[in-house]
Amino acid sequence: MKLSWPSGYALVQFDELDSTNSEARRLAEKGEQGPLWIGAARQTGGRGRRGRVWHSGEGNLAVTLLLRPKAPAAVIGQLSFAAALATAEMAQHYAPEASIQVKWPNDVLADGKKLAGILLESGEDASGRWLAVGIGVNLAGAPPGTEFPATSLAQLGLAPPAAEDALTVLAARFAHWYAVWMSEGFETVRATWLARAGGLGKPIRARLPDAVHEGVFEGVDTSGALLLNQQGQVRAIAAGEVFF
After folding, report:
1. Considering Cα of 103, then 118, then 159, then 155, what sign does the dihedral take?
2. Domains of the chain: which residue ranges?
């Protein structure tokens, strides 16, 4: 498994930012082409999915990759699965004995608790579509009292790596999966993601903005939508939150 910094990827580090995704947007609007990793030791306005606050915490990893994928806008969201795989492999590198799984649509779990979250944001300008792949990983600590229980590498009883070392591993693995996605399409990424998927074949609740659906998690389809079997009827869910 390649772990050195990937060729062709730049890096800029900040002591403090409102959020690395916001900085990615600002840089994209100034014409930055990427691929560029943006890191911050502290975030004052980190964001999670659905507008939630993301608490980075000292010693944790808060980064965003700014990309301009040469792909149709309709499939760019599939890169959340590539990001989840890269993050899971980074976590497994430092926690080889832990059960590291991915959770639809874009979380990484360690021993059943949330270790990392991913937030994709995109826009379009004169240079084409840009994509910000925000990744937060609990290395040294995790916030208490979250709706889905959280953990960190330190809480697994491990000496957490320095954020810059974890980023090198993450960047290497993302470069690998991005190259696979670009050359082979979604299927290899999808199959590898499913091999790590938490809750596969088990009862889950899928919470949508207007309803909650229960059923058995059957997998994800070729677009990345969750497949929920409800007494023999399979429902494809494009966006939502999953609870085991």
Report:
1. negative
2. 10-195, 203-243
Going by pLDDT thresholds of 50, 70 and 90, the confidence category of residue 107 is very high
Cis peptide leading into residue 161 (ω within 30°):
no
> What's the fold here for domain 203-243?
SH3 type barrels. (2.30.30)
Asked whether 87 and 145 are in contact (CB, 8 A), the reply is no
- pTM, two decimals, is 0.93
Query: DSSP readout, 69-102?
Result: -SS-GGGGGGHHHHHHHHHHHHHHHH-TTS-EEE
- Record the tokens describing residue 147, joined without a space: 């709706």
210 by Cβ neighbours in 10 Å (0-12 / 13-18 / 19+) ranks as: exposed
DSSP structure class, residue 133: E
Nearest by Cα to 75 from 231, 224, 232, 242:
224
Look at domain 10-195 and name its CATH class: alpha beta
